[in-house]
Amino acid sequence: MSAFKLLLLPGDGIGPEIAAEAEKVIALLTRAGVAQFEIERGLVGGAAYDAHGVAISEDDMKRAHAADAVLLAAVGGPKWDGVPYDVRPEAGLLRLRKDLGLFANLRPAICYPALADASSLKREVVDGLDIMIVRELTGGVYFGEPKEIVDLGEGQKRAVDTQVYETFEIERIGRVAFELARKRGNKVTSSDKANVMKSGYLWREVVTALHKREYADVQLEHMLADALAMQLVRWPKQFDVVVTDNLFGDMLSDEASMLTGSLGMLPSASLGAPDEKGKRKAMYEPCHGSAPDIAGKGVANPIAMIGSVGMALRYSFDLPKAADAIEAAIGGVLAKGLRTADIKGNAPSSVSTSAMGDAIVAEL
Amino acid sequence: MSAFKLLLLPGDGIGPEIAAEAEKVIALLTRAGVAQFEIERGLVGGAAYDAHGVAISEDDMKRAHAADAVLLAAVGGPKWDGVPYDVRPEAGLLRLRKDLGLFANLRPAICYPALADASSLKREVVDGLDIMIVRELTGGVYFGEPKEIVDLGEGQKRAVDTQVYETFEIERIGRVAFELARKRGNKVTSSDKANVMKSGYLWREVVTALHKREYADVQLEHMLADALAMQLVRWPKQFDVVVTDNLFGDMLSDEASMLTGSLGMLPSASLGAPDEKGKRKAMYEPCHGSAPDIAGKGVANPIAMIGSVGMALRYSFDLPKAADAIEAAIGGVLAKGLRTADIKGNAPSSVSTSAMGDAIVAEL
Ligand SMILES: CC(C)[C@H](C(=O)O)[C@@H](O)C(=O)O
Ligand SMILES: CC(C)[C@H](C(=O)O)[C@@H](O)C(=O)O
């Protein structure tokens, strides 16, 4: 039986509550002999700041490097609004992405039929929606230098962020998108602002050349990021795989996840490049945030977190059947009418975080 | 009777068709003695490139500076995909904004009740929606330097764009938003990515200080741009005035306009700072693009363009009653069931561009 090391980072807000449900699922997988999972625990975000005064400790970074996969729940909250910029909760997340080289962020936007009515969009617009957003995660304006605030005197400051992309960065994320498309609807929509940004101009050039050279069998279209923000609202089913840069991917994937009415349901994967043995560094986390307003109440939806375990089985551990089983179990409890508060809609009642976790374990 | 000089730039695609309908309305205003409007015509975008090899000529820039207001229809189209970057159609638009100092872009997202069913969102989510997006238009990543592509050799290039904001730029756009909010719902939502961008950090600091100093009577909230992209889909009626930077404003205003189901209906205003006499440079244009796919067919919706004349009356010519009359006329023809193809919905038939223009003139 294969053995895998997981680093679990519950983080802030509802993080610890939903992480506990993911642990139940992992324990079951071990008991069922799917594989041997060893779970280490660490701190990130506000939790790390409170304990160590940093957004993630060097020790936990070492553990992250050594793990076969990192499972992160959520970071941040108003409690840490006043902390210095360099140790704010988000810095821990950004460091994990950057230091582990997790350049490919996969964010599925799936509308569960049972939940289509929870969307603010008309049922026919979102029912059956299945988009995969591939977001570049270690480049662009998130990390480019200079990134600074300069005091100009007389009450004036100048703030600068730098959007940088090199050919190889665009190529490798493009490749991820085309490979995924071949296993799905065979269509890639690449998004940029080539009409105003030089990085967008290069993005389009590189994706176009890569397509021509290696992926001519996949349908490729280019769409400006503002037009894509529109088209996601108008008719999201026109999309299969969307590939875009770090900042556009941040906004567009959030917009897309909200379309589904299933925000608490959506997991994500952040992947590095394969090493000589074909192994990739990887981190899995829900698309949603730390929801400090409902933290500690036992009402958070653990499905995105449990779905993140499913994605880890698929993308890191090569256990697609176990991944399918988790997805089926999630579908199963939904079909039975189980709902946490966020997806309650017109349902007569809702269940707690742990009741939802237990039900999924039972279904498995 | 006051006299005003207008520069009309029909531009590309459906631009000339909808510009012609705006001219009918302006002619009527002159005949009715509302004011004396003198219309000059110029070229911008692909049309200027075809005629002069540039995105806008120096002559037309001079006319734009001399005019009391510029009316622009739309620029761009696939015909000019291959032209050099510096003379692409969008460059004309960007130069007008920058050289005229039009830092404040007002983009209303209004859902006309008669059209609520044309939205992909549920009626109750958008019916009566009335948001004003205030987008900074002459700064940020659109204009910051360096902005370049460097050849690194061995098939590698590096593209750089620079996002820059100074205190005074954030302050003056913030002021526009707060002033507008006072005349509307008294609430401003300021949007940034303060958690990853230094420019966002400064943005938040400056807006917060301005609020405290001069606009404490207005309700202010901050929302990350990705969260705003989500919330616009979830429950857009929570917003009154939204203020944000050039790039976020581009995407968020397009997303917001698509919510309304009324994209062909939405005008916009781009305003400069008032001079000693209180006069501002100004440009008015539809929120929609040049729609090359339907150009020349006489089916485009002229309402956003005619609405742009209305905004000019309100913001440049201090003729609020005439502006109200135009808005009422638009509402009137809609109430009578007149529809162009884009807003046809389940209506039995649709009318042409010029029939819609004529009907609005008749209603006026
Ligand atoms: C928390 C924040 C830094 C992060 C981002 O902007 O990437 C989040 O919004 C996300 O999308 O994962
Ligand atoms: C045409 C383009 C340069 C422009 C922009 O990005 O500002 C357009 O999308 C807009 O929003 O007016």
From TrEMBL, chains A, B:
Enzyme Commission no: 1.1.1.85
SUPFAM superfamilies referenced in this protein's UniProt entry, alphabetically: Isocitrate/Isopropylmalate dehydrogenase-like
Gene Ontology CC: cytosol
One Pfam family in the UniProt entry: Iso_dh
Binding site for NAD(+): 77-90, 289-301
Primary localization: cytoplasm
UniProt cross-references to InterPro entries, sorted A to Z: IsoCit/isopropylmalate_DH_CS (IPR019818), IsoPropMal-DH-like_dom (IPR024084), Isopropylmalate_DH (IPR004429)
One GO term of the biological process aspect: L-leucine biosynthetic process
Subcellular location field: Cytoplasm
Pathway this chain belongs to: Amino-acid biosynthesis; L-leucine biosynthesis; L-leucine from 3-methyl-2-oxobutanoate: step 3/4
PROSITE patterns: IDH_IMDH
Subunit structure: Homodimer.
UniProt record similarity statement: Belongs to the isocitrate and isopropylmalate dehydrogenases family. LeuB type 1 subfamily.
Free-text function comment from the UniProt entry: Catalyzes the oxidation of 3-carboxy-2-hydroxy-4-methylpentanoate (3-isopropylmalate) to 3-carboxy-4-methyl-2-oxopentanoate. The product decarboxylates to 4-methyl-2 oxopentanoate.
Record protein name field: 3-isopropylmalate dehydrogenase
Organism expressing this protein natively: Methylocystis bryophila
